[in-house]
Amino acid sequence: MRIALYEPDIPQNTGTILRLAACLGLDADLIEPAGFPTTDRAFRRAGMDYLDHVRLTRHASFDAFEAFRRARGLRLVLLTTAAATPYLEHRFSADDVLLLGRESGGVPERVHATADARLLIPMRPGLRSLNVAMACAMTVGEALRQTGDNHLVSRD
Questions:
Q1: Cα 124–12–43 angle (5° rounding)?
Q2: Where are the domains of the chain?
Q3: In sequence order, what DSSP letters do the residues of the chain get, joined into one string?
Q4: What is the pLDDT of residue 150?
Q5: CA distance 25 to 19
Q6: Residue 122, Cβ density class (10 Å: 0-12 exposed, 13-18 middle, ≥19 buried)
Q7: What is the CATH number of domain 2-147?
Q8: Angle at CA 144, nearest 5°, toward 141 and 148?
Q9: Is the dihedral of CA 99, 126, 11, 32 positive or negative?
Q10: What is the pTM assigned to this prediction?
Q11: Minimal CA–CA distance to 75: which of 15, 107, 119?
Q12: Bridge partners, 57 (sequence order)
């Protein structure tokens, strides 16, 4: 299971998601360009002290990410408010990449078209969306529950 961020805009959300990936032992992908500096130095300056604990792969573009993903046979699962399938009705797999779009605009149509699945988190009518880091945490939790990937849980 991997988490991918498409051209993120808000460094705090990126930091929160990378921390989630580090703590849960998930790989993370950062698809450039981002709306802020994404060098290790910039991340450290922003207080992202979990950077050494996350397996982060940077991709210069969505096309580069797609080549990486396809070469590994990974399924692309897009979280989007433009989907019809609730995330709780989806059957997750250990080879899923959970893709989150830009906070300011999601992902373009060509990325939507590439996704193997498009999922939403049902919300009350009239509300736009959840914070991207919250949406990520909710979906990752369900995906790990379904796949039984609880190797980090202590059974004491």
A1: 155
A2: 2-147
A3: -EEEEES---HHHHHHHHHHHHHHT-EEEEESPPSS--SHHHHHHTT-TTGGGSEEEEESSHHHHHHHHHHTTPEEEEE-TT-SEEGGGS---TTEEEEE-BTTTB--HHHHHH-SEEEE----TT-----HHHHHHHHHHHHHHHHT--TTS---
A4: 61
A5: 10
A6: exposed
A7: 3.40.1280.10
A8: 140
A9: positive
A10: 0.91
A11: 119
A12: 29
Q: What would the two tokens of residue 72 be?
A: 């590994």
CB 35 within 8 A of CB 8: yes
Who's near 13: CB < 8 A, 6+ residues apart? 103, 131, 132, 133
Q: Express each pLDDT in 34-84 by its tens digit.
A: 998 887 777 666 557 778 889 999 999 999 999 999 999 999 999 999 999
* One-letter amino acid for residue 94 of the chain: A
Q: Which two tokens stand for residue 23?
A: 């703590």
